Amino acid sequence: MSERIQTLVETVRKVIVPVGGRLNRSRCSLIALGLVAVAGYALYKNPPMQSVGRGEIGMRLNQLTGASTEVQEGAIVVIPGLHSLRRFSLRDQIYRPEGGEEATGSAPFQTVEGLSIGLDVSVRYALDPSRLASMARALPENIGGEVVQPAVQGVLYKTLARYTVREIFSTKRQEIKESIEGELKPLLEKDGIKLQAVLVGKVDLPADYKRGMESLLAEELATEKMRYTLELKEKQVKQTELESQADKVRREKSAEAAGEEQIIAAKAQAEAMKHVLPFKQKQIEQRGLEAEAEKVARIKNAEASSQARQIEATGEAESRRKLADAEAYRQERMGKIASEQLARDGALIQKNPLLIQKTMADKLSDKITVIIAPPPSDGGFIGSTLLGRAGRTQASNANQHAVENDQEGE
To answer: Which CATH homologous superfamily contains domain 92-205?
Structure first.
């Protein structure tokens, strides 16, 4: 046993010894130890230092005076037997009715037709910190189950029983939500609870009603479609009528505009003719003067062309005459030069008879490679043997002609 416990037991024993003086020392020690254990258990179950967490508010109630003290987040001294501490959450809390989400659930909602439906409803609420001091003693431990649940279920069943299934499902959902909030809010405010919002979710319909409603909706959709189709056709007919009227007016306006354009064009043409006729007359006079001038110019050109041709013919005749004289002079001069050349050639051949053979060989050199012929017996021209008598005759004639030319030149 530790020293502190021994000291505490001794202190308790000294207190109870005068009360039970006849008891022995061991019994007093046991009684003291029992009192210390009871006090320790009481302190364990009800510690004097307690704390308030984040998002909470604490109310310390004095059991003797009935006063209450509001405690924010942090630690606080709570004396067992004198004080009691209650913690309240300041965060928003959600309550959902159980068994009412489905039409076949344990607690479905009823409509004005007496049908069971399921409705997913969420109620978001929070405690009012300004009223906790006055309402702390009256609020039960389970606020959601003992305060919020009865109020919500009572309002939901009463409100939904005033509407039909179709209104709940589609047309008056927002109205139902606002009605629930309007009735539920004052009920919760009496207990210091603030209603934040009521959220209405999915609506679960009975199977038979769902099938009938789907067929009814399909028929209504077909009716709405037909109505819109008829309205569209009617509008198309009106549109066609308006377009035909507009087309008629447009054609009338176009015809009027075309007629006015023709009138204006005719007036403009008549006005233009006043200026065109004098202009045409001047054009005719101008063309006559131009034709007369062209005639005179052609005559002058013909005369000038005739004179030019005469001059050209005279010049051409003079040129031809001079060319003929020049050609005659050239022929005469060439004849004299050829005669002189023949005379010189004849004299050269008489001095060197072998030149004839060389000349003949030169002329035949590109045609005959080798000439085999017997030399003349008289030692004359070697070609006379090849040419025969005709050759000798031509050679003698050529020599005679060369001699004559030389004589004439002398």
So the answer is: Band 7 domain (3.30.479.30)
